[in-house]
Design a protein that fits this description.
This is Phytanoyl-CoA dioxygenase. This protein has 360 residues and is α+β, with helices and mostly antiparallel strands. 30% of the residues lie in helices and 22% in strands. Bound molecules: 2-oxoglutaric acid.
């Protein structure tokens, strides 16, 4: 969409408003004295005129809901090179537990990241299966330090790190990055959980932590997109229990919350990034489709929240930020030195199959 917009100057979204929405908008416009009263004629100089009503702020009526709804605003708000994290983003993050930045990685950046991830023996060698207890598994590779290859430039670039610092309100450091690979037909599901449900157990005293979930592939309901309970970060930490191979949130509590919070399916185009709070409840279904679903997740912790226990992720380690153009300029695709890949057997919140079983 962004490419078409830049090349042709427009995009068309057919049926953006469905039948019911349109009927409501028509009622709001047609039976509206205020609109009629404020309408004025715009003459065309050929004896004809169109009537126009114009207002400066969207307001809270049905027409305002159109001007403020995410399907319109988020499309307009796609990442642009002059992107700066704003106060409004922080407000949204605090209220809903997430913000979406569409097109955070552009086409060229994404192509480089894909080369770095796909043609990488080290990532393949360090990947392990995370069983979902229902016979499926996702493959995951996880490293603790960003390093200096293309993937490290993503984890260290200003458009990501500065945004996390704005949203959490202070200096952050890289807690880990992971590549979550849900392969066609085999990729497993993820239980409802909060990331802080795990990280709490690592001696992180505050939930001043977050994840940036970047779509490498197109992510849809069909191939197991993320589902989130909007605003659930405000419920605090929920008890987490090991079920199958994964640790999940207490489902009795999640089911209660589902009755009062909005469940959102987070469909994403490649390059889109969801910045979400460590207490936001999320889950995802198995990939039953023929389409690969890879996601690249960078996690950050606040410097002031230095873990009190030495564990399998780093304690405070200053993050060396790089400018955004470092992703495009980086020519290191496979020198993974310094990344410190995780040995999954050291993480108490997941269960992995021993190597012998894996090869059977
Ligand atoms: O990739 C997913 O669907 C979820 C991943 C996730 O939530 C996690 O690894 O904590």
């Amino acid at each position: 969409m962004k490419e078409d917009f830049e090349e042709h100057g427009y995009i068309m979204v057919r049926g953006l408003l469905d039948h019911d929405e349109l009927e409501k908008v028509k009622v709001a416009l047609e039976d509206n004295d205020a609109i009629r009263k404020h309408a004025f004629g715009v003459a065309d100089g050929k004896g004809r005129e169109s009537m126009m009503a114009l207002w400066n702020h969207p307001g809270s009526d049905v027409t305002g809901m159109v001007g403020r709804c995410e399907k319109i605003v988020n499309t307009c708000e796609k990442y642009s090179p002059d992107f700066q994290p704003s106060d409004k983003m922080k407000e949204d993050f605090e209220e809903h537990g997430y913000i979406m930045v569409r097109g955070l990685l552009d086409h060229d950046e994404l192509e480089k990241v894909k080369v770095a991830l796909e043609d990488n023996d080290a990532i393949r060698k360090h990947a392990f299966g995370v069983a979902d207890g229902k016979g499926r598994e996702s493959m995951m590779a996880l490293w603790n330090h960003p390093g200096s290859d293309v993937t490290g430039m993503v984890g260290r670039c200003e458009k990501i790190v500065n945004t996390c610092e704005k949203l959490l309100g202070g200096e952050v450091y890289h807690y880990h990055t992971k590549l979550m690979m849900k392969e066609p037909f085999t990729g497993g599901s993820h239980l409802w959980h909060q990331d802080y449900g795990y990280w709490y157990k690592n001696g992180c005293l505050y939930p001043d932590m977050m994840t940036v979930f970047i779509a490498i592939d197109k992510i849809t309901k069909e191939n197991g997109c993320l589902q989130i309970l909007r605003g659930s970060q405000n419920c605090g930490r929920i008890e987490h229990i090991m079920v199958g191979g994964q640790t999940g949130a207490d489902m009795e509590r999640v089911n209660q919350l589902k009755k009062v919070l909005k469940l959102e399916y987070v469909e994403m185009e490649p390059g889109d990034a969801l910045f979400f709070h460590s207490n936001l409840l999320h889950t995802s279904n198995a990939n039953d489709s023929k389409y690969r679903r890879w996601a690249f997740l960078c996690a950050y912790n606040k410097k002031s929240n230095d873990p009190t226990i030495k564990h399998h992720h780093p304690c405070y380690t200053p993050l060396e930020k790089v400018p955004n153009n470092a992703i495009k300029e980086c020519i290191n695709f496979n020198d993974i030195s310094g990344k410190d890949f995780m040995d999954p057997t050291k993480d108490k919140t997941i269960k992995v199959k021993p190597k012998e079983e894996e090869t059977n």
